[in-house]
From TrEMBL:
Main EC class the enzyme belongs to: hydrolase
Gene it is expressed from: cas1
Species the sequence originates in: Inhella inkyongensis
Alphabetical GO biological process terms: defense response to virus; maintenance of CRISPR repeat elements
UniProt-listed NCBIfam families: cas1, cas1_DVULG
Cofactor: Mg(2+); Mn(2+)
Protein name in UniProt: CRISPR-associated endonuclease Cas1
Record: residues binding Mn(2+): E165, H235, E250
Length: 349
C-alpha cells in the first residue's frame, strides 16, 4: 500500500536527486537506485545525506514528507508541502484542546491503551518465562499495571493522570530486562531505567531508535487525516513538539518494545552491534541500524486483526486507522447508540 512505502536512507554521503519524477540515489558518483515518486509516502534520511533542491521541490509538490534524523534517529527537521486537511476538523481539535474535560478523556484513552498493551507484553513474557522467579516477577509487574489502570478513571486532572502514567512506566522499565533472554541480560538491560538524549545503554538505544520510527509514522498518519500533529491532549504543548503524534504513539510503544525484544532474543542484534560514544551515549552501528529498519518494515507488513474491522490489516496501517478514529472522536460524531463517539485505542491481542 502507498501509505506503507517509506524510503529510509542510511548510507552517509549518499546524494539524492530528481530524475524525471523519479528519486535517484547516488553514492560515490555511482547510481544505486531509482524509485518513482508516486511509489513513496515519505523519505527518511539518517545523518549526512545530501539532497538536490529540485528533489525537495518535487517531494513537496507531491505531498511526500521529507524527514531528517540524526544518525541515532533523533528528529532534526521535516519538509512538507502546503498544509492539507479539513480546516473544520482542526478547529474542532483546537476547541477540544481548550476543553478540560474532553482533553482529560482523550488523554486517559491514550494512557489506557499504553498500559493495557504493556500489560499484555508482560503477561506474555510471564507465560513464556524459563524460570519460576521470572514468571513471578513479570506477573507482579502486570498486576501493578492493572492497579494503575484501575486508578485512571479517578484521575481528576492531567497532572494526576501523568503521574499515574509516569509511575507505571518507571516500574515497567525497571523490570523490562526480564523479557530479555537470560544469556543476553548482561549486555541488554536498562541500567538506570529509561534514559534518553542520549540513551545510556544498548536496550535504551534500540528502543529510542524504534520509537522514532513509530513517531514518524504517527505524525504522517495524523497529517493524512487532517489533524494538527502539534496540538495534543496528554503531552503538553511546546514549540517544535508534535504533541498529538506523541499522544497517538503511546499505544504503539509496546509494539516497538516487542520488536526490540525479538531482535535481541533471536540474536539478530548482538552487543557488538552498538557503539559507545564520548560522554556515555550508546547508539546502533550503521549495519545494525539497517537491519533494524528491514525488520521494522517487515513487521509493518504483517497482518493482524483490528477489533473494529472485518478483515486483516497490515500493522503499518494501524496509525492511520487510529488517527481516523481519533478524528471521529474529536469531531464528536455519533456512535451506533447515538452517543458521541469516544476514542478507543488499539489493544494488542
Amino acid at each position: 500500500m502507498h501509505l506503507l512505502n517509506t524510503l529510509y536512507l542510511t548510507t552517509p554521503d549518499s546524494y539524492l536527486r530528481l530524475e524525471n519524477q523519479t528519486l535517484a540515489i547516488e553514492h560515490n558518483h555511482e547510481l544505486k537506485l531509482r524509485v518513482p515518486l508516486h511509489h513513496l509516502s515519505s523519505v527518511v534520511c539518517f545523518g549526512p545525506i545530501q539532497l538536490s533542491t529540485p528533489l525537495m521541490h518535487g517531494l513537496a509538490q507531491q505531498g511526500i514528507a521529507l524527514v531528517l534524523l540524526n544518525e541515532q534517529g533523533r528528529f532534526q527537521a521535516r519538509l512538507e508541502g502546503p498544509m492539507a486537511g479539513n480546516v473544520l476538523l482542526r478547529r474542532a481539535q483546537h476547541q477540544a484542546g481548550q476543553d478540560g474535560e474532553r482533553s482529560l478523556a482523550l488523554a486517559r484513552a491514550f494512557v489506557a491503551g499504553k498500559l493495557r498493551n504493556t500489560r499484555s507484553l508482560l503477561l506474555r513474557g510471564a507465560r513464556e518465562a524459563k524460570t519460576a522467579e521470572d514468571e513471578a516477577a513479570l506477573t507482579r509487574q502486570a498486576q501493578n499495571l492493572a492497579a494503575s489502570l484501575r486508578a485512571l478513571p479517578a484521575s481528576a486532572d492531567l497532572d494526576q493522570l501523568r503521574g499515574i502514567e509516569g509511575e507505571a512506566a518507571r516500574q515497567y522499565f525497571a523490570g523490562l530486562s526480564l523479557l530479555v533472554r537470560a544469556d543476553a541480560r548482561d549486555a541488554f538491560h536498562l541500567r538506570d531505567g529509561r534514559t534518553r538524549r542520549p540513551p545510556r545503554d544498548r536496550l535504551n538505544a534500540l528502543l529510542s531508535f524504534l520509537y522514532s520510527l513509530w513517531m514518524n509514522d504517527c505524525r504522517s498518519a495524523l497529517e493524512a487525516v487532517g489533524l494538527d500533529p502539534q496540538v495534543g491532549f496528554l503531552h503538553a504543548l511546546r514549540p517544535g513538539r508534535a504533541a498529538l503524534a506523541l499522544d497517538l504513539m503511546e499505544e504503539f510503544r509496546p509494539l516497538a518494545e516487542r520488536l526490540a525484544l525479538t531482535l535481541i532474543n533471536r540474536q539478530q542484534l548482538r552487543a557488538e552491534d552498538f557503539v559507545q560514544r564520548e560522554g556515555g551515549a550508546v547508539s546502533l552501528d550503521p549495519e545494525a541500524r539497517k537491519a533494524v529498519l528491514v525488520a521494522f518494515q517487515e513487521r509493518k507488513q504483517e497482518a493482524l486483526q483490528h477489533p473494529l474491522l472485518a478483515e486483516p490489516l497490515a500493522q503499518g496501517l494501524l496509525p492511520l486507522v487510529q488517527a481516523r478514529l481519533l478524528a471521529r472522536a474529536i469531531r464528536g460524531e455519533a456512535d451506533v447508540d447515538g452517543a458521541p463517539a469516544s476514542y478507543v485505542p488499539y489493544l494488542i491481542r
